[in-house]
Amino acid sequence: MIPIWLKWALLISASGAMGGLIAATLYAVRLAFEQVPDFKKDAVEWKSFQNTCKRIQSPWFFVGKALVGIGGAFAAILGGIWIGKISFDTSTENILVMISLSIVAGTVAHKLVPGIGRRLEQDLLKGQINNASEAANEAREIAGQAKEDNLRVKDYFESMSFAETALGRSSAFDIDPAIEHLKAIQGEYPFDRVLHIYLGRLYRRKGDWDNAIHVLKKYIDNSNSKDNPDDNIQRKINIADAYYNIACYHALKAKEMSQKSLKDEVYRLEQETIVLLKQAFEGNPANKDASIEDSDLEFVSEILETEFGLKHAKN
């Protein structure tokens, strides 16, 4: 006969793993809303997109999500036991509650486990056991936000789809509404590379170089935060790609200023472009190959050759 504690452990593990797989599926669905970059126009974006697709095609991606989900489920259940809000009553109602809580905790485990762990560690080191108990209670509070999280995911998909449609049209009719859609959710997704790149491109369509640059600089600041869940390698690549896009916007703005005979401003922008490209190339060498074919950098083709030894395709 299987011990009752083992039955509960298997139930929590299975439910948490299911939650982790739900999180993995949501990530894959979200990726489906990304516009596939044009290799000729944006080789860096294309390569990054391909790498992401390969990562989620690996079974280990889903296994990893399932394991994180199991950890999140146990964190939520143990936290509930600690504060006396969860029991191991074998009634049907309690079993359903445990399954639901474990699935939800598994789904949001990437938020649940690190946050609670940091809070518990800090409070225990300070000897504030009561505060540590409150931190454990956050497991239930986070789990209770599942419905709200689902609504946010829906808003994300709709906003990204709207932006993608606007960028795909030849007219600028939907550009401003698309910008407002992305700005409305920007604060909830500070580490979302695609969202910020889309927003920058929307501003670019308006010829608003300053806001296009500001959006990506803000993304870089966010990415350098200790709260960024990306691993160091992915973070470095994402930041380098953001610098590359900023360099392109500097080059396009310099071209516009040259048409207005603003020589000092053109010189300043060109010098800043050199610095930005250095950061882009150091963080992601693939940006060097992309720069050779990138029409956005045509105006600074001489800089590419003299500073980096790269011969632009236009030459």
TrEMBL record:
Keyword Membrane in annotation: yes
Listed InterPro entries: TPR-like_helical_dom_sf (IPR011990)
Superkingdom per UniProt: Bacteria
Organism per entry: Rubellicoccus peritrichatus
Family matches, as Gene3D superfamilies: Tetratricopeptide repeat domain (1.25.40.10)
Alphabetized UniProt keyword annotations: Membrane, Transmembrane, Transmembrane helix
Residue ranges crossing the lipid bilayer per the database entry: 6-29, 60-83, 95-113
Lineage summary: Bacteria, Pseudomonadati, Verrucomicrobiota, Opitutia, Puniceicoccales
Name of the protein: Tetratricopeptide repeat protein
